[in-house]
Task: structure prediction
Amino acid sequence: MIESMTTELKREYTDDIKYAVVAFANTDGGKIYVGINDDGSVYGVGSTDATVLRITNMIRDSIRPDVTMFTECAVETMEGKPVVVLTVQRGTARPYYLAGKGIRPEGVYVRQSSSSVPASESAILNMIKETSGDRYEDARSINQQLTFEKAENYFAKRNLPFGDQQKRTLNIIGSDGTYTNLGMLLSDQCVHTIKMAVFNGSRKSVFRDRKELTGSLLTQLEDAYSYIDQFNRTRAEFEGLDRIDKRDYPGEALREALLNAITHRDYSFSGSTLISIFDDRIEFVTIGGLVRGLTFDDIMLGVSALRNQNLANVFYRLNLIEAYGTGILKINESYADCAVKPQFEVTDNAFKITLPNSNYAGERKDVATPAKVEGKVDRQEILLRLAEKRGYIVRKDVEGALKVSQATAILILRDMVEKGLLIKEGSGKLQKYRIAE
Result:
């Protein structure tokens, strides 16, 4: 008998056995023989019961997640001497790691030839992806030494419990008892940041101030809003004897743009969320384009597909989000009485919201309209021209002119009515839409 990819020999019990257990569970399984010399000769075990107890206690206390269901300890007789044989199967919750080291190379071991060696970071990430799926927030966090001081305070202020049971319900703790990436995002050790910058004028030429926000996403949310609020000045206007105060940016628009940037970003990328404050506008740039299957026009109509479903659910529980898919609509509604409107741009890997300063009186930087970003003629203009030519339009006209489904046509017409562009007349099959006077 010799050591190999699936065989480990130990003369007697030592605490080092745990490295081989982790390595076998992370690779292709194997057997550990206690009572066999390195040269393969049988030495034997003095007290088999005590050795089995020490091994089982070590596995339970030293290795995470729980790997006991993939191990079996038995006593065999070889050359007339008792030998303890520990059989380890390849686990389903890889990577397994030493409890005191965490999911890091010094805590995660794999089998190479006849040795147990630290796994590389790329190997660890591949194991996490293989066993946790593609959703980032569901995967196990690399860091398992997480604290939740900010999250606990946030839940306490809203009289909501935040114990282990709630963490499991919210998927902060996964089914294997380890913290997920969602837990990492809400923890005080969150590795993702928001970078904020303030510029003179309307271009990125002269910095006035810059700040990087760290900690729990809940901390970053509060800090980002407070920082932006410093630059959201109030302008006073008078109508007769009445004074009317008007802020540069509607509070509702700032809130929704910030929540959108945090809840919809792709956290599998390491780059920061960027918030740039100019004299004439604020730009929110989020890593991660549209969720697969959605188009730019879909989100403008309020269609929502969440990239981070569990994170959005936490924010919903905390009353930070009132309803899914309403953020863009609320931003547009908050600028309903303003001459300059918000702009939305999307690429394959980023999403950008630009909120104009409604009190700004200087020359503005040119900003592409959604139609230009998408390379299309604005759909509403097509329908308005058609209605002007024919005197009215019906739903089937929208379907034919824009090549959209019945449901999308209804949403477009409803949006144009709410914006005051069209007036609805009649009902059922006789329903028509005319241009508003």
About this structure: The chain has a mean pLDDT of 87. The chain is about 35% helix and 20% strand. The chain has four domains: 7-131, 133-186, 194-300+322-371, 379-435.
